[in-house]
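The freezer alarm interrupted the setup, so I double-checked each line after restarting. Inputs confirmed:
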Amino acid sequence: MDCRSWPSSDASYANWGLVNLTVDPYDEEQICPQDTIIRRINPVQHVVWDDNRKKHRITSKAYNKSSGPKAGMSVDIENLIVAANQNPQTYVTTPVFTGSVAFSAGDVRNLELWVGYEPIKDVPDVQDNPHHGEVWAKIEKKSFTESQKSGLAKSARWYVELPDVDIL
Amino acid sequence: MRQVSSVFQNEVPNLLSSESNTSSLPLRSARVRITQPRSRWVAELKDRFDELTALPQGWDGYAGRPVSFNCAQFAANLLERLFVESVPAPQIVPGDDGTLQIEWHQNQFDIEIDVLAPYDVCAVKRDLRTGLVQEIELEIDFTPLSGWIADLGQVQTQAMRTGA
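Predicted 3D structure, all chains:
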């Protein structure tokens, strides 16, 4: 299967053997460069007041990886949501309402980052998310570099816009 | 000894000597309470720390956890040490993994201190006037951060004097 023959049912990616947050970092070849990668943005916790720019904007913390080995940045893979006959805008605003931004997989990879599948399954108190993915640094570090974080912010566009909040 | 009430009081016993008003960075294994914050910053941020440590599981729409007590406690102690009177309190944002980030965006500086764990910090300073970006990782000596905040304080003071 290449990146243009997308799986059409849950069973397809269930067979990839990926379960909750234990995937080793890798770059998923089935995710094409033009594919949309969605990052959810909490309208309260991910927004700061920027007095230099006189506006509310998304914190750089929203574009960073989790700490720890193998950890990355949580995302949703739009094509997986569509392939499951679900509305992506609805999907990424439930169960917790969040705004969201989107990047192309190509933009992500141009920042020396990988993107892959990492379904959330059987995490206590967390709803399963079979369309969950992860963005990892090619070179493992404590956090994404400043250029990676700012690069993600620069390449981001609104997917579910938060009113009166700027991306940059 | 006395029982005291302070931020994050629900996670560990708060037993300190009645003379204690500790604000210095503790030893790695110690859990130091801030019974009466000396700095305006920590006093102003008390409710925010409480909010972040009480975030619900999945707050970010994924599997996000609340900010850990250890990170919050370390951040509060770090802020006590970095306090500069002329600089407003920073903003604090959570990570999805129990970490938090301290941020200032003013006077043509962006300063971001990402507390990944006690004594494990990544920090970035952007000078918007010069375009200079500094990126550092700190584990023991946090003196560079004091320098950054002092710079921010100097610019703040100059701005207040000139009415900018």
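Quick read of the result. Residues 6-20 of chain A have pLDDT under 50 and may be disordered.
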